[in-house]
Amino acid sequence: MFLLAFTEDFSLNRLLGFRSNSEAVSQTVYKFTHPRASATLEMNIVTGVFSVSFDLKSDPSLLESQAPASEIAASQVRSFLSAANLLPKDLTGPVTHEFLKVESQNLVAAVSLSEASLVKINLFRKAIGDLPSLTPNPSEANIWFIVSGSRTRDKQIIAGEYHYFPVDEGQSATYPIKTAQQALDELAAGGGFFASTGLNQENQTVVFLPADNCLCRR
């Protein structure tokens, strides 16, 4: 099983455009470099989860171009994933975007396309019934990538993460609700974290307690 995953994912990195030679980060995580760009692919060869990063200091010209329109960027992301057969059938949920720019060496939100040098694309899974598929950060999908305005294909996808696991829609379960005191005690003991709620107009705090997959609001 491990050997099969190892072989499949080493083929996968080539389909994504990265070199076949690699650097072992751990027993299951390997790092690959790109032959024509300052990009790095880090992949878990057992789960298939991977991330892409780009050394912008070595090629700052990518920040001098205006970001592509969100529709074009989304198409580029889908093309990038499709080349490695990484567009599962249930990846048909909302496609959202966020325009970005660099300030003081940090990525920050840009008000509009005209101010942006990059655009972040989120590809969400389809809803199951009437329930949307969300992460602890509701504005960020399990699959997201940042796209530059470069006309060079190898320099268009400069960052991203791919977390995808198949879901058996025929199986469902419910979890018992904790009391407020139980949730507070577990939180005080370090058993949870504060999840992002995006534009939190109702001023609610959402706490995720992973031990029992319990979402608690206050």
Please provide a brief summary of the model:
This protein has 218 residues and is α+β, with helices and mostly antiparallel strands. Helices cover 17% and strands 28% of the residues. The strands form 2 sheets. The protein has a 9-stranded antiparallel sheet with strand order 1-2-3-4-9-8-7-5-6, with helices on one face. A 3-stranded antiparallel sheet has the order 10-11-12, covered by helices on one side.
Topology:
Blueprint: H1 2-15, E1 22-24, E2 29-33, E3 39-44, E4 50-54, H2 70-82, E5 95-103, E6 106-109, E7 118-123, E8 143-148, E9 157-162, H3 180-188, E10 193-195, E11 206-209, E12 214-217
Antiparallel strand pairs: 1-2, 2-3, 3-4, 4-9, 5-6, 5-7, 7-8, 8-9, 10-11, 11-12
Can you tell me about this structure?
- With 218 residues, the chain is an alpha+beta fold.
- It has two domains: 2-162, no CATH class; 180-217.
- The chain contains three helices and twelve strands.
- It has helices at 2-15, 70-82, 180-188, and strands at residues 22-24, 29-33, 39-44, 50-54, 95-103, 106-109, 118-123, 143-148, 157-162, 193-195, 206-209, 214-217.
- It has a nine-stranded antiparallel β-sheet, with helices on one face. A three-stranded antiparallel β-sheet has the order 10-11-12, covered by helices on one side.
- Strand 1 and strand 2 (29-33) form a beta hairpin.
- 22% of the residues are buried.
Q: Tell me, what's the shape?
A: globular
Helix/strand/pairing class, anyone? alpha+beta
Determine the fraction of residues in helical runs and give it as a percent range. Answer: 10-25%
The stretches of 5 or more residues where confidence is low (pLDDT under 50) are: 1-7, 211-218
State the total count of DSSP E strands: 12
Number of domains: 2
Q: What is the residue-averaged pLDDT?
A: 83
Widest sheet: strand ordering: 1-2-3-4-9-8-7-5-6
Radius of gyration: 19 Å
Order of helices and strands: HEEEEHEEEEEHEEE
| Distinct helical segment count | 3
Biggest β-sheet strands, sense, barrel: 9 strands, antiparallel
The share of residues in extended strands comes to 25-35%
